[in-house]
Amino acid sequence: MNSTDSVRHFEQKGSKLLKEFRDFAMKGNVVDLAVGVIIGAAFGGIVTSLVGDVIMPIISAITGGLDFSNYFTALSKSVTANTLAEAKKQGAVLAWGNFLTVTLNFLIIAAVLFAVIRSLNKLKQQAEETKSPPPTPTRQEELLTEIRDLLKKGAGPSP
User: Fold this and answer.
1) Which one of 31, 34, 98, 159 has the fewest CB atoms closer than 10 angstroms to its CB?
2) CA distance 13 to 9
């Protein structure tokens, strides 16, 4: 095999591999999954903003100005800072306020997704319920069905 044949061989293999990849990537499930991941990432940003910019300030106002993201417990005596960022620089801290915020984010995402999926399931169920039943067969169709069934049983007219 000379070098020209080798190049052609690799071009054919590469072309086949590229075609297989394109076919795989263009399947509905893969494209749907990619769209879902992108929308999910954007939705995560919305929920993070909802928690950080709307819900937590309301909770903070109700609790007298508490900022949960800066709540921590020092695990080292050398930690004397008042903010989480500074405390982390000084030593080991248990950042339970940040954990509380992240947990709240998760619970809100889970609740919203549950509500969306529940609504979609209800819409799907309503669509199935509103489907019209199949039309009743005409008299001619009933007779033809009876004849077909009799022929299947072998009970046709005898000669």
Assistant:
1) 159
2) 6
For 57-114, write each residue's pLDDT tens digit.
887 788 787 667 788 888 988 888 888 889 899 999 998 988 987 888 788 778 877 8
Q: Residue 91 and residue 97: Cα distance in Å, rounded?
A: 17
Question: How does DSSP classify residue 69?
Answer: G
Q: Read off the tokens for 158.
A: 């005898």
Q: Where does residue 60 rank: exposed (0-12), middle (13-18), buried (19+ CB within 10 A)? A: middle
Among candidate residues 110, 112, 107, the one with its CA nearest the CA of residue 56: 107
Q: ∠114-115-118 over CA atoms, to 5°?
A: 80
What's the predicted TM-score (pTM) here? 0.49
Domain spans of the chain, in order of start: 1-63, 67-131
Burial pattern 114-140, b for ≥16 Cβ within 10 A else e, equals eeeeeeeeeeeeeeeeeeeeeeeeeee
